[in-house]
Write a structure and sequence with these properties.
heterodimer; A: Butyryl-Coa Dehydrogenase, subunit A, domain 1; Butyryl-CoA Dehydrogenase, subunit A, domain 3; 2 domains; 7-stranded mixed beta sheet; two-stranded antiparallel ribbon; 13% strand; B: alpha+beta; 4-stranded antiparallel beta sheet; 11 helices; binds flavin-adenine dinucleotide
Chain lengths: 327, 392
């Protein structure tokens, strides 16, 4: 069966994500709130979202990657802190490595997991929203490693392109607490793609809404073809990225040999959609789009941040050249 | 949400694969002319005899009546074995035939449908005129009722394979005083009627793909009108549901093959530095990776369209998203090939000449069937609900 649209149960799950995030995570919070979504994350823990895709025996909710993809797409739309992805992936690592206690502690919100981005092969890393996180997670195509915070040294704050996260430089050394070489990096690629899709979709929606509202020369700017065509392209990019992400998720779910290829494809088109939609959204807004007070700038910044997780686009473009396409 | 094929689907795939690999023509389709017609029609006839004609058409009209998933499997396997494109049968199979089924009367259906399925007759599309392209509703070719005939005078242009077709779906203005969408008639024209002059037009790729067609008091029997006099706009715009979701699968599969071949090419020709292979060049690798990702995403969009079709058979405007994506991607792929080839890409025959030929041919893919600008207008207005321009 080919069915990439949510059924009634999935729709109910999705509606729940949406209603919670709409009420509790308007993007305006980023200008005031404590960094790292310190208020939001405990709520997500309480709602069981961290262990959404883990089986009940691992302390999770027992859903699968389908629901995780829906969650991260919404998280992307609302620019939720990367700590959510850290926790979800960290719990997967612990569960796969057989460390039930640690998985439980992460799901219960007792231990938060910061994401790291590698800057070079010698251990230079960036840590995202991680100042208070006892654990840190980093991955590439080959595997995923969970570290204790003590593996990081020389930590220093650095102003970030995306100034709505805290960014720290550090140096990573020593052995990880846990290391897995399973399909988790593929899952991570898919969930990052889902977040990028959410960013791309929010940017599209903001641009379209504004194009209907803002008038110049006596008509809505969306009637001008230059603007209309930008919006059409944003819609196509978001559509391609969203459905490719789902296809990748189901290829992984069904253990298909093309799962890695589909995930790389998702990651490439989703990063492209988020970055280009993010840029176009500012252009459609004109002067106001360039201001701090308006929201468009939030999305392009987050797109850049997410696009570096687990390796940049160039890396994925290389990967996909040798990954197995569907038969 | 789900994406998996059942055992039954798999059996069906095996059956299709078996039949296709035993039956596809071994020769390449000739590029144009009567030889092309003979080739395309013979292939259609073979599919008919094998029971595979009109896979998406309802079985009451002699079609195979496949489910949407089976149609997709058919087209996937079709492209995988390298079966020839429908060529000059395209309009008959994918546009005129379905329109006659949806809007024609019993007599029209009984006469034309079997001829299409069996490869006895093919069709072309006489819609565009020199002054009416994107703005199709402005057509001026006149049709005047005289006794039992409609007498047609005027000119059509860009009529693909007009010189090797039997019939055409012809749009004419039958009431010049009515509002522009209300005075048009859709009529079945025999291409051999007296008063018709057909002139092939050479294209930038060198293939004689389309023609201009002149009509000098051509008498077409009124019984050939489909959907009623002056009702032709609604017939031309009929939403043809039976291919919803699968219409672009052949194009997508073909393009994927082209991208695979391009990656192969890059493994065998030198990079710009003349030392490494092209695929080892960072920029080339990055462009190829992006193309591989984009063709995967086009397949995902097809699956999305199939998912929607299963819930609602009436096609939505999102079809324009896939055709826009495809047109742009087709051009990007062939342009990348020419960039990789460098000076060798300047040669149109010999070793890599096929790529140059494909590059030149791809310029049509953002124009034919509605330009990409029109596709963007449709997405902007009908998918996103953006307003039309004042006076537009
Ligand atoms: C290979 C090929 C095969 C074809 N086969 C057939 C066939 O079999 N039968 C048939 O009837 N026709 C056929 N066509 C014609 C095709 O449908 C038209 O070429 C197409 O619709 C564009 O019309 P035009 O060529 O008159 O260009 P125009 O409409 O004059 O367009 C010129 C430029 O203006 C742009 N433009 C026009 N209107 C707008 C607008 N509202 N907003 C923004 N931009 C606009 C267009 O996008 C384009 O860039 C074929 C064309 C090609 C290239």
């Amino acid at each position: 069966m080919i069915d990439l649209l949510p059924n009634a149960d999935e729709q109910a799950v999705l509606d729940n994500f949406r209603s919670v995030l709409r009420a509790e995570a308007p993007v305006s919070r980023l200008r005031e709130a404590r960094p790292g979504d310190a208020t939001l994350l405990p709520r997500m823990v309480e709602l069981g979202w961290i262990g959404l895709g883990l089986s009940e025996e691992h302390g999770g909710v027992g859903y699968g990657i389908a629901e995780e993809m829906l969650l991260f797409r919404e998280a992307g739309r609302h620019l939720v802190s990367p700590l959510l992805l850290g926790a979800v992936l960290g719990a997967h690592v612990a569960a796969e490595a057989g460390d039930a206690d640690l998985a439980g502690a992460i799901i219960a919100g007792e231990k938060s997991v910061a994401l790291l981005i590698r800057k070079d092969a010698k251990g230079a890393v960036l840590r995202l929203d991680g100042a208070a996180a006892p654990l840190a997670l980093v991955w590439d195509g080959a595997g995923m490693a969970l570290y204790d915070e003590s593996a990081l040294s020389g930590i220093e704050d650095v102003p970030a392109l995306d100034n709505y996260v805290t960014l720290e430089r550090a140096s990573l050394a020593g052995a990880p607490l846990l290391h897995v070489t399973s399909t988790l990096p593929v899952r991570a690629k898919i969930l990052v793609s889902a977040m990028l899709v959410g960013v791309a979709e929010s940017a599209r929606d903001m641009a379209v809404d504004y194009a209907k509202l803002r008038e110049q020369f006596g008509q809505p700017i969306g009637a001008f073809q230059a603007i209309k065509h930008f919006c059409a392209d944003m819609a196509v990019r978001a559509e391609a990225a969203h459905f490719q992400t789902l296809v990748a998720g189901f290829a992984l779910h069904e253990n298909q040999p093309d799962a890695a290829y589909q995930a790389s494809a998702a990651r490439i088109v989703a990063a492209d959609a988020a970055l280009r939609n993010g840029e176009r959204n500012i252009q459609v807004h004109g002067g106001i789009g360039y201001t701090e007070a308006a929201d468009p700038q939030l999305f392009i910044k987050r797109a850049h941040l997410l696009a570096e997780l687990g390796g940049g686009t160039r890396q994925h473009q290389r990967d996909i050249l040798t990954e197995q396409a569907p038969a | 949400m789900e994406l998996k094929f059942s055992k039954e689907d798999q059996r069906f795939r095996d059956e299709v694969r078996g039949w296709l690999s035993d039956n596809i023509p071994r020769d390449k389709a000739p590029p144009h002319g009567p030889e092309k017609r003979a080739f395309d029609m013979a292939w259609q006839k073979r599919q008919y005899e094998g029971g595979w004609a009109g896979v998406s058409w309802p079985s009451e009209y002699g079609g195979r009546g496949l489910t949407i998933t089976q149609q997709m499997i058919w087209y996937e396997e079709y492209a995988r074995v390298g079966a020839p494109a429908p060529g000059c049968m395209f309009i008959a199979l994918h546009h005129a035939g379905p329109t006659v089924i949806a809007r024609g009367n019993d007599e029209q259906k009984a006469f034309h449908i079997p001829k299409i399925l069996s490869g006895e007759a093919n069709w072309c599309q006489g819609f565009s005129e020199p002054s009416s392209g994107s703005d199709l509703a402005s057509i001026r070719t006149r049709g005047v009722v005289d006794g039992d005939d409609l007498v047609v005078t005027g000119q059509k242009i860009w009529t693909t394979w007009g010189n090797i077709s039997d019939y055409q779906e012809l749009l004419v203005r039958t009431d010049p005083n009515a509002p522009r969408h209300k005075g048009i008639t859709w009529i079945i024209g025999d291409m051999r009627l007296p008063g018709i002059t057909i002139q092939p037009i050479s294209t930038m790729s060198g293939v004689q793909h389309f023609c201009q067609v002149f009509y000098d008091e051509v008498r077409i029997p009124l019984k050939n009108v489909v959907g009623g006099l002056n009702n032709g706009w609604s017939v031309a715009m009929s939403t043809l549901g039976f291919e919803r979701g699968t219409a672009m699968v052949p194009y997508q599969m073909e393009l994927r093959r082209l991208i695979d071949e391009l990656c192969e090419l890059a493994r065998h020709v030198p990079a710009p530095d003349g030392v490494r292979m092209a695929i080892e060049d960072d920029e080339i690798a990055s462009r190829l990776g992006e193309l591989r990702a984009e063709i995967a995403a086009m397949r995902a969009m097809t699956y999305a369209s199939i998912s929607r079709a299963q819930r609602d058979p009436v096609p939505g405007p999102e079809g324009s998203m896939i055709s826009l994506y495809w047109g742009e991607l087709q051009k990007k792929v062939t342009r990348t090939a020419v960039d990789i080839l460098g000076p060798a890409g300047l040669e149109r025959t010999g070793g890599y000449g096929g790529w140059t030929q494909q590059y030149l041919a791809a310029f049509k893919d953002t124009i034919a069937g509605g330009t990409v600008e029109i596709r963007r207008n449709v997405i902007g207005e009908r998918v996103l609900g953006l307003p039309r321009a004042k006076g537009g």
